[in-house]
Design a protein that fits this description.
29% of the residues lie in helices and 22% in strands. The chain is α/β, with parallel strands linked by helices and 449 residues long. It has twelve helices and 17 strands. Strands 1, 2, 3, 4, 5, 15, 16 and 17 form an eight-stranded mixed β-sheet that branches. 54% of the residues are buried. Helix 8 links the parallel strand 12 and strand 13. Helix 3 runs parallel beside helix 4. The longest helix has 18 residues. The structure holds zinc ion. The site of zinc ion has 5 residues, from loops.
Length: 449
């Protein structure tokens, strides 16, 4: 077996960054040792002052294949991931056709992924009104957990679920021991707000923001916390956008409920005040709220109420963004950021006194834990997969189309100056991204325990 040593003056271990050598045997980390203790026969890769982080894990991605490969697909999503320092993606069960709501659909996804992936992947299964009988079979077949929507999802083949149907599904979910990821907005508050807006101008970002108020998120989260305490399943709130829910979430966690929380780079970087009217590239649901709310989300990360940061990478063909008309009501909601999430997060985090250890925790360790990939993904430690990002934390980059590697290179971040550049990405000991190129074969595979 080939033995390699990855050296850096900033190896980001769970205990913090330090000068070290990571010894790799085949696809796994054998040990983290002092730099002088590298065996002479090991192939040495010395990254100097560039940080060596664990490969990032994105627990919220819409790959859209099979069925909507013209929006995105395994080839392009995993290429964008490798360029962004990700070594594993967990795919959402919707926007692909068929939606991943039964075992046959899961097999179709596996078929579609064959030979296309530059990084490892896994998938969530869907919980919809008519599939309580498929939940435990999906778990046995290898999904990492489940996802449901409490509001319309945006695609017809993946239905939202109401409380009564959810109560049918939850005992099955609880029996699997896997987490249920919830898009937490309730339609009542969204519909009422939209009605109040009457004939408002939908080119204005403020119209869209008012149409999806904080209360829609808050009410959904309260409902899910109550169901969590009743049914005892693992609850995960995806893409938290309102800081108003932090208090309830903090209290729920303090009381011992098995709840975890995610937010996204766009909620931590962008702000409603500076989103231009017509800028539908910034449309996502729940919406990006104001600056004060953003700062509260950062506090949520600081005090641990928010566990992790996932991209919610959700691309579409550019015409669906309705850029000429700029109409927020008709544009597809979804922001793409697989290639940029790490620099976006580092730009914001280092200004607030956070370290690369925090970044590794939010973007690798915790998403890996959510997806049940511990002790294989998420850390630089003995026994884990040799997945690494080589990161120049001091360099700056300007976002240009050649830095985006997903299918349609449009982005709300175009032209921005960001801090930190992904130099190389290694998947199980092998380079999959190096200085703008993608060496080697597509060696990514499904993560199965
Ligand atoms: Zn999503």
């Amino acid at each position: 077996m080939e033995s390699q040593a990855f050296l850096s003056r900033r190896v980001v271990t769970p205990e913090g960054p330090r000068p070290a050598a990571v010894l790799v045997e085949g696809e796994r980390i054998r040990a983290v040792v002092q730099r002088e203790d590298v065996p002479t026969n090991a192939l040495k890769r010395d990254f100097g002052d560039h940080a060596l982080l664990p490969g990032l894990v994105d627990s919220h991605v819409h790959i859209n294949e099979p069925g909507r490969t013209d929006w995105e697909g395994f080839h392009t999503a995993t290429r964008a991931a490798a360029a962004g320092g990700y070594t594993m993606l967990v795919d959402m069960p919707l926007n692909c056709v068929p939606a991943t709501t039964n075992v046959a659909a899961l097999q179709a996804k596996r078929q579609a992924a064959q030979g296309q992936c530059r990084v490892d992947w896994a998938t969530w299964g869907g919980v919809v009104p008519d599939n309580p009988g498929d939940i435990e079979a999906l778990a046995a077949a290898g999904v990492r957990g489940f996802k449901c929507f409490l509001v319309p999802s945006g695609v017809d083949e993946f239905s939202m679920i109401r409380e009564a149907d959810l109560r049918e599904a939850l005992p099955h979910v609880a029996r699997t021991g896997l987490p249920l990821l919830v898009h937490a907005e309730l339609p009542g508050a969204v519909n009422a707000a939209t009605e109040r807006l009457g004939g408002a101008d939908w080119r204005r970002y403020s119209t869209y923001l008012q149409s999806r108020p904080d209360e829609a998120e808050l009410a959904a989260i309260r409902l899910m916390l109550a169901l969590c305490s009743q049914y005892g399943f693992r609850l995960h709130i995806v893409h938290l956008a309102t800081a108003l829910a932090l208090e309830d979430l903090r209290a729920a966690r303090a009381s011992g409920l098995p709840v975890s929380v995610e937010t996204c780079p766009h909620y931590l970087h962008l702000e409603a005040e500076t989103i231009a009217d017509g800028a539908t590239l910034c449309k996502c649901a729940p919406p990006i709220r104001d600056r004060a709310n953003r700062e509260q989300l950062w506090h949520g990360l600081r005090d641990g109420v928010i566990d992790l940061v996932a991209t919610d990478h959700s691309p579409c063909p550019p015409p669906m963004k309705r850029l000429e008309k700029g109409s927020f009501d008709r544009a597809w909601g979804g922001i793409t950021s697989l290639s940029l999430a790490l620099p976006i997060m580092w730009t914001e985090a280092q200004q607030r006194g956070f370290t690369l250890t925090d970044i590794a925790q939010w973007m690798s360790q915790e998403p890996a834990r959510l997806a049940g990939c511990d002790p294989h993904k998420g850390k630089i430690a003995a026994g884990y997969d040799a997945d690494f990002v080589v990161f120049d934390a001091e360099a700056e980059l300007t976002v240009t189309t050649d830095r985006l590697h997903h299918r349609h290179p449009v982005s709300p971040y175009m032209g921005e100056k960001l801090r930190g550049v992904v130099k190389e990405t290694y998947l199980r000991g092998t380079p999959v991204f190096a200085e703008g190129t993608f060496p080697g074969e597509a060696s990514g595979r499904e993560f199965r325990k």
